[in-house]
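Translate structure to sequence.
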């Protein structure tokens, strides 16, 4: 039996063990084909079933109807940063962006290369420790769209309300909290996320888009850059990342098997309560970097009293079977990522480890 650790990596990140076992079982002979999914045609009935199921499960879990197109694209979430303005920032109309840290900043950078971005709000003034208040956002009514990053993987903040501005389509980068809780996905015109945080291995970016927004794609772009190409061909215009889509499908089935988003949300809530509970008990030792009302359920960021203690905690944790607790290189500190596939047991055990570490190293 392989030795598995509690993997708190921020992305690529831990996958459900049940899913990995299915992949292992089906690797050499996918359902009697005598081939692995990696070796079958993306035009075969077997792959067609995988692709159709993955699209249907995405809609089912999000509670969306078939007005929404589901696409599995390549180039990661980072490519969407460019494709969004390429497709929707037409006729001098700009997108409005809320800058809540590294990934939003990168999305804005691409928009600025491609016609410009309107800054609707920002938390840069306080090192991105908070999510701006919706009432304070400046979203011109003729904006091509409003773009937000629902969970800020690096800064450890998360939107807990959905901004709605009449007539302005809402686009969200949900890379690190997609399908982690119940929200009204129907309020969004476009949702996208790199699979490698909460959906599967790296290699695809899930894009969910309402048909009304799809119809607004600008003409004249190369086929691969036009969302209409991928929606019409169900992500099969060119060869898709078939192994990744297959594993995403298994993860979606796993989420459904857990009881869907209601059940997943309940577990995720318990997990984050355990870690934030510990931090609130010892606020001078585990110093949260996010403002309380903006705390992320998925990526919990903190600093210890000094960098030597942070290094020691990371090293001791690794020796004790807890991996991936190092904060992003741009911010340092400790980051506990609690994606769907991290068990409640993992959160409990790492909290117990951290409390013991504090006792011994105070
Ligand atoms: C990881 C991440 C990205 C980048 O995703 P890629 O698939 O590597 O391009 C973008 N946005 C957020 C919020 C992320 O967490």
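Result:
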């Amino acid at each position: 039996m392989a030795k598995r650790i509690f993997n708190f990596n921020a992305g690529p990140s831990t996958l459900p063990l049940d899913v990995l076992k299915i992949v292992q079982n089906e690797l050499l002979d996918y359902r009697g084909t005598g081939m692995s999914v990696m070796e079958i045609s993306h035009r075969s009935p077997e792959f067609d079933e995988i692709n159709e199921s993955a699209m249907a499960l995405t809609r089912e879990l999000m509670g969306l109807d078939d007005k929404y197109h589901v696409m599995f694209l390549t180039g990661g979430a980072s490519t969407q940063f460019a494709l969004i303005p390429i497709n929707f920032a037409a006729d001098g109309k700009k997108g409005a962006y809320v800058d809540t840290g590294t990934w939003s900043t990168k999305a804005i950078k691409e928009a600025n290369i491609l016609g410009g971005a309107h800054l609707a709000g920002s938390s840069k003034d306080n090192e991105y420790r908070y999510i701006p208040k919706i009432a304070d956002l400046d979203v011109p009514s003729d904006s091509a769209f409003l773009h937000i990053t629902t969970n800020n993987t690096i800064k450890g903040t998360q939107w807990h309300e959905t901004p709605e501005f009449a007539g302005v389509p809402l686009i969200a980068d949900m890379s690190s909290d997609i399908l982690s809780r119940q929200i009204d996905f129907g309020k969004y015109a476009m949702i996208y996320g790199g699979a490698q945080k909460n959906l599967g291995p790296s290699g695809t970016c899930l894009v969910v888009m309402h048909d009304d927004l799809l119809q607004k794609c600008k003409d004249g772009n190369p086929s691969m850059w036009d969302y209409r190409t991928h929606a019409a061909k169900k992500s099969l215009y060119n060869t898709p990342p078939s192994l990744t889509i297959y594993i995403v499908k298994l993860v979606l089935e796993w989420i459904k098997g857990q009881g869907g988003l209601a059940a997943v949300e309940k577990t995720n809530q318990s997990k984050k309560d355990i870690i934030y509970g510990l931090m609130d008990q010892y606020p001078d030792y585990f110093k949260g970097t996010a403002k309380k009302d903006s705390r992320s359920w998925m990526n919990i960021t903190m600093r210890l009293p000094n960098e030597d203690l942070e290094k020691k905690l990371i090293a001791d944790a690794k020796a004790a079977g807890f991996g991936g607790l190092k904060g992003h290189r741009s911010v340092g500190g400790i980051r506990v990522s609690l994606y769907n596939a991290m068990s409640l047991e993992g959160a409990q055990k790492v909290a117990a480890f951290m409390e013991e570490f504090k006792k011994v190293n105070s």
